[in-house]
Design a protein that fits this description.
single chain, alpha+beta, 8-stranded antiparallel sheet, 5 helices
């Protein structure tokens, strides 16, 4: 379970909640320019652009969950169980394993416009990273300052959706979320007027009554609607501190509290981390479930011309500032 959003003030921002019942050894990882990836299709790829994001590193390979490159192209993979279908390699296509998709996109392309020219010939393959790290069902949101798209490979093939909301959650498929938004066109940040009957003098008795009907649960469909509502009704100043604070407030509105969602295996889904990337400046802000102090890693302070990954551990101990 996850929620991803894009956001624009003076700068362009992108980030997500990652909701899971376990941790996966995630760290902030910077991949430099010209870093070599050995792809499952037996070719080599060197990154044209440096990448910063959240990843697990195995044998010097960054398995990114979400990231941006130095040009401001952003991407995140979100859980898509039962709907994602990966294929065997196909002749005449660029065969990319699902775990290779983020570094391939962000390492090679500066914008969605550039990327879309290649996506029609992409085949996402069913090859796992290893026996210990099997294939995960995913779909992806890709955003730059100008637009967002969603990539979903299902039994019907690869679908590329224009995403006017700049929001993505999980199941069902994106076209369902798009249609479902029509059910909430009556939701408003304004106080409602009486449309029930002119013969009955109904009136508001408290603030926020225009939001009655906004779904409050943490299902993927509810989180999609709620994140979109708060994003498009957001009022914030355009300085950096105000922008990232507002971004995290939007993510907090769709976060999971440990104990509120119990899986079939009797485990607890929770928002293990939240990220906010200033894609215009290459700054990765984050907080974790157990340490909600906002912390950051800056791409420009890394050696993006080096030959190794820069890896930063996530401080997990709550950092409380005492005022007396």
């Amino acid at each position: 379970m996850c929620t991803c959003i894009s956001f624009k003030t003076k700068d362009f921002y992108f980030g997500r909640n990652l909701d899971l019942e376990y941790r996966f050894g995630e760290k902030i990882v910077i991949t430099p320019q010209n870093y070599e990836f050995f792809l499952r299709n037996k070719t080599k790829m060197k990154t044209k652009y440096a990448i910063i994001g959240m990843a697990t590193v195995v044998d010097n390979y960054p398995l990114y969950a979400d990231a941006t490159n130095e040009k401001g192209l952003c991407m995140a993979g979100l859980y898509f169980p039962g709907n994602a279908v990966y294929y065997k390699e196909k002749e005449g296509y660029m065969n990319i394993a699902s775990f290779e998709l983020i570094p391939w996109c962000l390492g090679n392309f500066a914008s969605i416009r550039e990327l879309k020219q290649k996506l029609e010939k992409i085949n996402i393959t069913d090859q796992a990273f290893s026996e210990e790290l099997p294939v995960t069902d995913l779909h992806w949101m890709v955003s730059d300052e100008k637009e967002s798209i969603v990539l979903e490979q299902t039994k019907d093939g690869l679908k590329i959706y224009h995403n006017p909301y700049g929001v993505l959650t999980n199941n069902p498929t994106f076209d369902y979320h798009d249609m479902n938004m029509n059910n909430y066109m009556h939701i408003s940040a304004q106080q409602p007027t009486n449309a029930f009957s002119k013969q009955i003098p109904l009136q508001s008795y408290g603030q926020g009554m225009g939001m009655i009907g906004l779904p409050g649960d943490v299902t993927p469909t509810a989180r999609f609607v709620r994140a979109a509502f708060y994003k498009f009704n957001s009022i914030t100043d355009e300085d950096e501190e105000s922008s990232i604070s507002q971004f995290f407030h939007i993510l907090d509105s769709v976060s999971m509290i440990k104990g509120s969602v119990i899986t079939k295996e009797n485990k607890y889904d929770m928002t293990t981390y939240s990220s906010c990337i200033n894609a215009s400046k290459g700054i990765y802000y984050f907080k974790t479930y157990y340490n909600n102090q906002i912390q950051a890693v800056t791409l420009k302070k890394s050696n993006i011309h080096g030959d190794r990954l820069d890896i930063y551990e996530l401080p997990e101990k709550q950092n409380i500032q005492y005022l007396n």
